[in-house]
Amino acid sequence: MTQYSDNQNPKSDAHSPIVTVNNAPSDQPATLWLIDDDAALRMVLADTFEDAGLTVISFTQAQAAWTRLNDALKQQASATQLPDVILTDIRMPMMDGLSFSDWVHQHFPDMPIVIMTAHSDLTSAINSYQTGAFEYLPKPFDLDDAVATIYKAINYQPNMAIAHYSNESDTQTTIDARADSDITPETPTSTHSKHSKNKAEVTTTSKANSNPSGIIGQSQAMQTVFRAIGRLAQSPISVLITGESGTGKELVASALHQHSPRKQQPFIALNMAAIPHDLIESELFGHEKGAFTGATTTRQGRFEQANGGTLFLDEIGDMPFSTQTRLLRVLANGEFYRVGGQQPIQVDVRIIAATHQNLEELVKQNRFREDLFYRLNVIRLPLPPLRKRPEDIPALATYFMQSAAEQMNTTPKHLHPAALQMMQTFDWRGNVRQLENVCLWLTVMATGDTVMATDLPPELLENTPLDSELDQEHDSSPQANAENPQLQNNDDLNNQSQNNQVTQAPASPNWQKALAIWAEQSLNTGETDILQTATPEFERVLLTAALNHSGGKKIEAASLLGWGRNTLTRKLQQLDISAPRVPSKE
Ligand SMILES: Nc1ncnc2c1ncn2[C@@H]1O[C@H](COP(=O)(O)OP(=O)(O)OP(=O)(O)O)[C@@H](O)[C@H]1O
Fold this sequence. Notes:
By secondary structure, the chain is an alpha/beta fold. Helices cover about 45% and strands about 10% of the residues.
């Protein structure tokens, strides 16, 4: 199976002066031009790449690198001073990395550029690949991965099969300056090439809406998805999107279409599971008048309607076996017959299929054609379940609270950090769709402008891991302790020790969440000065635990807490805790 990480050919513009990068083997290490306006990052990256055997030339801005390349283009600089690979940031003053990459690929089509950005979303991934970038690295990235990517870029250059990584086989890129030196290339910011016009359009879209595809995600897993979309959007190849229900398969299919050359043509989505089996063929391929009872008129199928565009076949695992055979034929030669038809119909349709099922398993059970599976599985794009990327939940929730408010024609509610934390621990079996529904529910049901943890719907409150700890929290909260003074005296210190209550407290960091919920509940009941209530109780718990741990030895307990003995003695008095009797003398 080919991974989506297939390399694109850098673009070239036939009317632009072009410099070809030759890759004659050389004893010199490969040269990397590193462009980033962040001095600290530049230093870290330069050290890393030098350690990896590269010669690194750093630039604080793309404009300076552009000037040197432009001089080479006009044959005013030595071709040997040009880089084997360029690594550039996107957002920089004067000239941005995308304009620079775009220009480089018009004039040095063989020179690989790797684009990195801290503002990584689908738009920047798509824009990067559209400039002809070899690869796109969302920050923060693993330095080893970055080194591997840079060497992959160097080795990708045409006519070059020798890795720079080993010292014995270093090569150097040289420039064959075939360009007409009379032609002065326009600067990337002023160029009117078709190339730049396309990009300008993209930029306009991106200014109007920073996330035109509506796909949100900062997690590494989603960055991988964005990169895949960036690479695959331009290609006509079939894609198989896999993932649990509600992970965004249709959204991704639609993004692949929206960013493809087919975007002006239809995107038609069809859910195989939602159509009765005996109607699927007619739905897909259309029918002639009289083909079956009820076929009173000739009708176009979805394939014809999607001609020139994209057909998204959702839940492909539910497609009947006989229809799979017909689909395979269309995929093979782009031709089919309407149901009851005699004339072959030719279409140009990109197929994107999706499933939440294990197609390999269906093939084993003879429920899915193996040949169709291989045809669809050329490129597979797996979408991660939401519970595997809780870091995406805050941005997704904010987005859904905003859109729910728009739907309800009201102002968006804000999520209290405790509520958000609980949402991040939930397992979201329904994935992003479930989160979207919860946000809609909260917009309607929660009182007040801020959604508290206690406002969350019952399915969340009942099923978060925090639940059991919440119960403990109720028992050990300052409020509960106040109502249960026994726990505050020395006898109970011993009792606690015997019952091992303190040591049985959850070791998980969820105690902070429990504390947040206690705080929220206290505030909800109108309490003030909650820090004054909580702090002594917090100290009491730690002091008790330390004394238990030390078997009542105060010096040891003080040291466990990081206090001096005097402080410990003072706290024991303040908190009215009597130190337990211990056998040892202090
Ligand atoms: N990353 C995301 N950012 C924003 N919205 C998302 C994201 N992922 C999914 N959604 C939203 O979640 C809902 C479900 O997404 P979608 O229908 O694409 O999932 P699916 O995997 O195709 O589901 P199913 O398998 O049930 O058809 C949609 O409203 C979609 O807009």
